[in-house]
Amino acid sequence: MRSIELGKNGLGTAAPNPMVGCVIVHKNTIIGEGFTSPFGGPHAEVNAIESVKAKELLKNSTLYVTLEPCAHHGKTPPCVDLIIKWKIPKVVIGIKDPHEKVGGKGIEKLLAAGCEVVTPFLEDSCREHHKRFLTFYEKKRPYIILKWAQTQDGFMAPSLNQREKDPNPFWITNRYSRQKVHQWRTEEHAILVGTNTVLLDNPKLTSRSWTGNSPLRIILDKDLKTPSAYNIFDGTVETLIFTQGNVPNNTQQGIQYECIDFSELAPQVCDTLFKKNIQSVIIEGGAATLATFIKADLWDEARIFTGTNSFKTGLKAPELKGTKISQSYIGLDTLSILRND
Q1: Which residue out of 33, 45, 188, 284 is catalytically annotated?
Q2: CA-to-CA distance for 306 and 301, rounded, in angstroms?
Q3: What span, in angstroms and rounded, lies between the C-alpha atoms of 32 and 295?
């Protein structure tokens, strides 16, 4: 469906709005297309209608859209009002919008204005496309992606003895796989790691190897062990630190703190991120952090790289049960995508 392909252009920029795609067809010919602008800008339906050069054709056209058009005022006016204004007679909607401000109101308004409405349409494909948005509003938490790299023999990292002998990074994957991870970062609202990952690797957690926005950095630092000189405090990206201790009085710009009970870590993180309107998070480690979310069954998708090398000893990768939905290769690296059913 062309509307879904268009909607993908909003990945990483439209959130917290859904990445909607819209196509307008007149006599089997596409006369207008649009997708959701970066947050705060026009929605897909507005962009599609504006792209139509011969506006007089709209009254005899069909509008296809992946998600129910909005019927409320937000940062932009209701999309249904524009559809009705141009007297578009038929609207084909992929799925209903679960947002409480929409939730069928857009469809009702179109029907009341005399529009023919067809819905659902390609429902499974549209649900997959809008998985982040739907998870957020239906499950009241972010869409959670687990990501890690493991060796052929199932290790995520070498032993501490190996690290002490050689302080240089032990890369499991090739540079193209690592670049792919940076691309993924641009597509998600936030990235999350635990204290050990920060202390051992001093990561920047940015998207510097790919063009796009860097996600919100989230650090699980129960006892605030991270030194102030570390990269997460460099001020280049908004950073949220979860702790169980006292929040520092003099916090620097761009750094937020949230106190939670680490005995209920995963659910509390999810609840806090939902309240902060964070719709997706990619969890990049370490093993204990990944295991915490796996044990709580709070994950939706796992992306696992398997390199060609072996460590023989070290930090074991998490054990995960899920449905493998794809397997591909980046050079000699294997990338497996699993879904939590």
Answers
A1: 45
A2: 16
A3: 47
39 versus 58: the higher-pLDDT residue is 58
Quote the CA–CA distance of 1 and 66 in Å, as a whole number. 9
Reading the block at residue 270, the tokens are 């999810």
- Tell how strand 116-118 and strand 255-259 pair up: unpaired
Q: Say if residue 286 is preceded by a cis peptide, omega within 30 of 0.
A: yes
Cα dihedral sign, 278-281-286-291: positive
Q: How many CB atoms lie within 10 A of CB 130?
A: 23
Contacts of 3 (CB under 8 A, 6+ apart): 20, 21, 22, 23, 64, 65, 66, 94
Question: φ, ψ for residue 324 (rounded to 5)?
Answer: -75, 120
Contacts of the segment 318-326: beta carbons below 8 A, 24+ positions apart? 318/146, 318/148, 318/287, 318/290, 318/291, 318/294, 319/294, 320/146, 320/294
Contact predicate 82/63, CB 8 Å: no
User: What is the Cα–Cα distance from 188 to 70, expressed in whole angstroms?
Assistant: 23
Report, as an integer, the average pLDDT of 26-48: 96
Three-class DSSP category at 255: strand
**71 vs 246: CA distance, rounded Å:** 44
Question: Which amino acid is residue 53, in one-letter code?
Answer: K
Of the candidates 45, 50, 43, the residue with the CA atom closest to the CA atom of residue 13: 43
Query: Between 169 and 281, where is the model more confident?
Result: 281
Peptide bond connecting 167 to the previous residue in cis, omega within 30 degrees of 0: no
Label each residue of 110-125 as H, E or C.
Answer: HHHCCCEEECCCCHHH
pLDDT of 77 reads 84
Instruction: List, for residues 182-215, the tens digit of each pLDDT value.
Output: 999 999 999 999 999 999 889 999 999 999 999 9
Active site residue 45: yes
Over the chain, what is the mean pLDDT?
A: 94
The answer on pLDDT for 163 being more than 70 is no
pLDDT of amino acid 99: 86
